[in-house]
Amino acid sequence: MKSIFLYFGAGVLVLVITVLIAVGLYIGPIVKIGMEKIGPQITQVSIKVDAVDISLLTGGAQVKGLVVGNPKGYKNSQAISVGAMTVSVAPFSVLSNKIVVRRVQVKSPEITFEGGLSRNNLSKIMDNVNAQAQKMGVAPSNKPAPKIEVDDFLITGAKVHVSLTGLSSQGMTLPLPDIHLTDLGRDSNGLTPAELTRAVLNAIDSDTIKVVTSAVTGLASGVTSLGKQTGQTVVQSVSKVTSTLGGLFGK
């Protein structure tokens, strides 16, 4: 009799694991659809995802081929692209009012910076996210959606493709230092999707501005130095370039 119960228990365990695996296969596409639907509502730009793979047993997930589009009026089709992003979630937290994400790692994203240092595609997306975060904060809801806590968010190996206003021939690709965010929403009831998006994009936008500003300042200094060592015609050309670079800070 004892062996019968053991076999029965083992059979139930196998069945549960099988169901979890089967459900996991279906959850990935559902999450993908959710990302492509909710993402544009927050950012006001297109969000495309190639695939989402989820393991309910481990709480792990992988997002493949994430592409964040550019706002209208910009030449490039995308603002951010990520080949692969891994996410680790506390499994049982998905049943609570605060989903706990242990770790998010984004590897080698490609970021497009188009415009000037004050107004550009990234700042436009940030404006959209800020407006949506404020809207969600005051909007009434009969059933509040679960909020999110992210303990560790790491972006490594990012590159910024720079297209500056008035300097179309001066395209640059710059490395971005690692971005490491911790304890997002841990000391509160969690963050809304819009608030979490704002925190991450703000870090990306801030670090990108620093890198681009440094590159522009270096370019202006180099051009000015060249002008001091050459004739009057070149000096006039240098003045035009430095004037354009200066104007970037107001565009």
Largest sheet: 10 strands, mixed
Q: Work out the count of structural domains.
A: 1
Give start-end ranges of low-pLDDT stretches: 5-11, 13-26, 222-245
Gyration radius over CA: 24 Å
Q: What is the strand content?
A: 25-35%
Give me the secondary-structure topology.
Layout: H1 2-43, E1 47-48, E2 51-55, E3 60-69, E4 78-89, E5 98-107, E6 110-115, H2 121-138, E7 147-156, E8 159-164, E9 172-175, E10 179-184, H3 193-228, H4 232-248
Parallel strand pairs: 5-7, 6-8
Antiparallel strand pairs: 1-3, 2-3, 3-4, 4-5, 4-6, 7-10, 8-9
Structure description:
The chain has 251 residues and is α+β, with helices and mostly antiparallel strands. It has one domain (2-208). Residues 5-11, 13-26 and 222-245 have low confidence and may be disordered. Helix 2 packs antiparallel against helix 3 and helix 3 (193-228) packs antiparallel against helix 4 (232-248). Strand 8 (159-164) and strand 9 (172-175) form a beta hairpin. It has helices at residues 2-43, 121-138, 193-228, 232-248; strands spanning 47-48, 51-55, 60-69, 78-89, 98-107, 110-115, 147-156, 159-164, 172-175, 179-184. Strands 1, 2, 3, 4, 5, 6, 7, 8, 9 and 10 form a ten-stranded mixed β-sheet that branches.
Q: What's this entry about, in short?
A:
Helices cover 45% and strands 28% of the residues.
